[in-house]
């Protein structure tokens, strides 16, 4: 048997007044919940803590009963649910407090077969925490409060990271900057080489200069060097292809000449065979000498051998033409394979160089961020920039959001703070 206790001392008055009083209690509870949330349309997540209050208006008795056994504090667990007495596990992650309140009332009404649905109010007692990482003095987990911005969150972590007293990083900065300058020059050369390879693969005669290189002082020299190399390679390729084309033309002429010679010898062979047959016929009748017959046979045999040699030479010339075609295809394929390999090697070198450049830039950024003399490190006037990134879980999907100092932070957000330095 569930024992209910009244919220306060109840006074029996007319039914209309009691209903107004009950509505006022529910309105106050809802107002408190809205004030606590202070985030329009906020959806619950793991580690959010809720305060639940449940009351029931009993029409028959005209009284208000307090469900004290159900009221209390609840935490959204790792499974995304809260455990309510008599109802059991109730999904909460992704729902609003109003949806949870309605679900509790419906669940209790069904469980006990109540005529009147209990009224539940759900308010946030504590939001799930936020997290700070990167260039902050004290990274870690911090409690969330409504109207929290990125700048306020960073202040919870003690502000930007500061160096220990007495540390000097000018030498590290100078060394890292020297490496970065060398890497940037090498990167420009590789980017221009990649542009030349792209032009060769596309069969173009001109190199399209990458946009990031157009403003560099050495862009013209890099372009002239790669253009000279491309012209040399192109000329060599054209020369080889022209040699194969000349060979095919010569062989084709040879095939045509052999075909004409073959026709002439075929006609001569036909005449020789006719003469041989005539001599054989006369010899059989004793009208022709045997020597004459032998001579006719020898002439026909010689012509057949010569015709066979001509056909063999023609086949050999045709085979050489096919080989020249194969050599031409092989030359094209080797050219494309060479370009593809050069492109792959260039991309690999660019990736390796980018890692080295990123390391040098990170060392420079660290020196600038930690040095007390950061403003004097770079005489060229380069400045430090601070970048904020919010990692947020959105309906089970993690997304990165570029943020500003006044960007609103939501419960559960991870704020990454990083410093940057422009390399000229």
TrEMBL record:
<feature type="domain" description="AprE-like long alpha-helical hairpin">
    <location>
        <begin position="184"/>
        <end position="361"/>
    </location>
</feature>
<dbReference type="Pfam" id="PF25994">
    <property type="entry name" value="HH_AprE"/>
</dbReference>
<dbReference type="InterPro" id="IPR003715">
    <property type="entry name" value="Poly_export_N"/>
</dbReference>
<dbReference type="InterPro" id="IPR058781">
    <property type="entry name" value="HH_AprE-like"/>
</dbReference>
<dbReference type="Pfam" id="PF02563">
    <property type="entry name" value="Poly_export"/>
</dbReference>
<feature type="coiled-coil region">
    <location>
        <begin position="234"/>
        <end position="275"/>
    </location>
</feature>
<protein>
    <submittedName>
        <fullName>Exopolysaccharide production protein ExoF</fullName>
    </submittedName>
</protein>
<keyword id="KW-0732">Signal</keyword>
<dbReference type="InterPro" id="IPR049712">
    <property type="entry name" value="Poly_export"/>
</dbReference>
<dbReference type="GO" id="GO:0015159">
    <property type="term" value="F:polysaccharide transmembrane transporter activity"/>
</dbReference>
<keyword id="KW-0175">Coiled coil</keyword>
<feature type="domain" description="Polysaccharide export protein N-terminal">
    <location>
        <begin position="40"/>
        <end position="124"/>
    </location>
</feature>
<feature type="signal peptide">
    <location>
        <begin position="1"/>
        <end position="36"/>
    </location>
</feature>
């Amino acid at each position: 048997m569930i024992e209910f206790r009244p919220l306060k001392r109840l006074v029996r008055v007319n039914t209309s007044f009691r209903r107004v009083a009950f509505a006022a209690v529910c309105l106050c509870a809802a107002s408190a919940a809205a004030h606590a949330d202070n985030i329009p349309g906020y959806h619950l997540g793991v580690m959010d803590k809720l305060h639940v209050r449940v009351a029931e208006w009993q029409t028959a008795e005209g009284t208000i009963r307090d469900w004290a056994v159900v009221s209390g504090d609840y935490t959204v667990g790792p499974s995304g649910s809260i455990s309510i007495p008599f109802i059991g596990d109730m999904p909460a992650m992704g729902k609003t407090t109003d949806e949870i309140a309605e679900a509790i009332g419906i669940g209790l009404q069904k469980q006990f077969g109540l005529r009147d649905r209990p009224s539940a109010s759900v308010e946030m007692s504590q939001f799930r925490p936020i997290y700070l990482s990167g260039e902050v003095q004290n990274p870690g987990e911090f409690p969330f409060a409504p109207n929290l911005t990125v700048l306020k969150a960073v202040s919870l972590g003690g502000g930007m990271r500061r160096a220990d007293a007495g540390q000097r990083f000018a030498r590290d900065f100078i060394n890292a900057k020297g490496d970065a300058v060398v890497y940037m020059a090498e990167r420009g050369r590789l980017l221009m080489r990649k542009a030349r390879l792209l032009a060769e693969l596309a069969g173009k005669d001109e190199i399209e200069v990458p946009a990031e290189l157009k403003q560099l002082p050495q862009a013209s020299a890099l372009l002239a060097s790669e253009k000279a190399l491309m012209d040399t390679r192109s000329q060599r390729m054209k020369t080889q292809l022209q040699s194969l084309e000349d060979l095919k033309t010569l062989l084709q002429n040879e095939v045509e000449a052999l075909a004409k010679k073959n026709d002439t010898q075929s006609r001569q062979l036909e005449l020789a065979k006719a003469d041989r047959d005539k001599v054989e016929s006369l010899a059989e009748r004793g009208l022709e000498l045997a020597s004459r017959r032998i001579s006719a046979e020898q002439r026909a045999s010689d012509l057949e051998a010569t015709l066979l040699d001509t056909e063999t030479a023609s086949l050999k010339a045709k085979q050489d033409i096919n080989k020249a075609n194969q050599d031409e295809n092989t030359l094209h394929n080797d050219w494309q394979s060479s370009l593809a390999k050069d492109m792959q090697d260039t991309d690999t070198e660019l990736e390796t160089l980018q890692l080295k450049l990123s390391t040098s830039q990170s060392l420079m950024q660290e020196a600038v961020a930690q040095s007390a003399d950061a403003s004097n490190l770079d005489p060229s006037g380069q400045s430090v920039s601070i970048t904020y990134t919010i990692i947020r879980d959105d309906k089970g999907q993690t997304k990165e959001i570029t943020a500003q100092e006044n960007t609103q932070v939501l419960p559960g957000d991870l704020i990454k703070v990083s410093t940057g330095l422009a390399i000229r």
